[in-house]
Design goal:
Elements: H1 2-13, H2 17-53, E1 57-68, E2 71-81, H3 90-95, H4 105-115, H5 120-130, H6 137-161, E3 174-183, E4 194-201, E5 204-207, E6 210-213, E7 217-221, H7 225-239, E8 246-251, H8 259-266, E9 271-276, H9 278-288, H10 293-305, H11 308-320, H12 328-344, H13 365-368, H14 371-377, H15 386-401, H16 404-411, H17 413-416, H18 421-431, H19 456-464
Parallel strand pairs: 3-8, 8-9
Antiparallel strand pairs: 1-2, 3-4, 4-7, 5-6
Helix pairs in contact: 1-2, 2-18, 4-6, 5-6, 6-7, 6-15, 6-16, 7-8, 9-10, 10-11, 11-12
InterPro entries: UPF0236 (IPR009620)
Pfam families: UPF0236
Family: Belongs to the UPF0236 family.
Amino acid sequence: MKIIAQMMEILEESATFLEAEILFEELFRQKAEECFQECMERLDKKCIQSYKDQGYEIDSVRKRTMQFTFGTVEFSRRRVRKKGEKSLIPLDKYLQLSSRSRNSPLVEMKAAQMASDGVYRKAADAINLLTNFSLSHSAIHSITQRVGQKVQEWTEQKPLSNVTMMKEKRKVPVLFIEGDGLLLTRRKGKERAELHRVQIHEGVAKKGKRPVLVNSMMFESAESSQKAFKRASGWIEATYDLRNTVIISNSDGGSGYEKDKFDLIIGKCARHEHFRDAYHVNQKIKQRLSFDKELSYQMISAVREWDYTKVCTVISQANDRIQDDYRRAEYELELTKLLSYLDRNWDSLKGLHLRYLPLRKGIGVCESNHRPYSYRMKRQGRGFGQKGAGNLAAIISARKNGVFLQALTEMIPAFKKEFIPEFKGILRTLLKKPKTRKSVGVIEGSIGKRCASSHALGQLAKVLK
């Protein structure tokens, strides 16, 4: 093959393999572009034939430049027109190429994926360095916002389109539902955005030595916790039959994440056990008992044991051990607030091991799963408004849920357009191999000996003797 010979020449002329690899990259890019251009040329000629048969005439040849993952390609296609009809470009129609679009659907999908992992400028640098196409950070931002908005719409609409019979829905013994909020960095002159999250899963399993969540799904909203719960509710209703399921819910008890908010999205179930998140409870205890660290650890132990007598004992001891008369009133108020907090949430503070449930772990995952969002959307000079945060978070959730490609395919026209049947027929015609004729071998013959020597054939016969 010619390309193999070219690669051999590159290796021979290069001083190092790095130098050769750089030249290989350029060679493969050129070959991909040449092959694509040749493919488009053949398709274009075949596509316009059916229009010629209908009386269309070639009006002009138009060039178009598009970015694909294998490189930027400029290719030509013919525009046809017919009197009384609107002019069109058959190749664009058959390939379902969107007008004025410079990037292929796969380029936009990968750009949005890169943007969900790092800042737009870094995503642009990575794309320009590691791929054969290039995008500016502003172009990536625009693509991400458009894609994220469509993903949010799909997340809300998809459960409504899934008409699943009750007998076909999943029946699980336990379903975990958790909710929590994540405050994002404030943009200059803007109100601080908060990302509201709800996460569901069916338990914890071991993958090698690493624990993983079973059938985990993440839902989010930058608008309100109510909207995040609504999105989760739609998927739960479309997926699960909870009539014989024990629901385990967990939250920090903040505004919008109270037990009744979980009751609203569950409906009928076998049992609902709500927990106050242990991490936040411990933080609250340490905050209120900051003046006596020794007793703060005793209080954490008393709450873990769910022993109200011990809780009251620790409060009494803390009150007696206040030595700073100047701040006594302040510390006593802290103790009053702590006891009030524990009283309000006492039922939810009962540990998993004390509730006679057929499990010992699985709660507290929402807080630990903030990382994909916080790593991308907090600190390092990053600021988000409500709309931008919602769009980017939707992409992160869709990727984690494994539905990103499905959402794009079903929501964005460029992703869901299928080749029309006529185009498949054109491809089959081009791929048909021409019929080979049976070989008849070498045909033998001779020049007659009776030709006059003055004749041309006679002269030829004399030469061939």
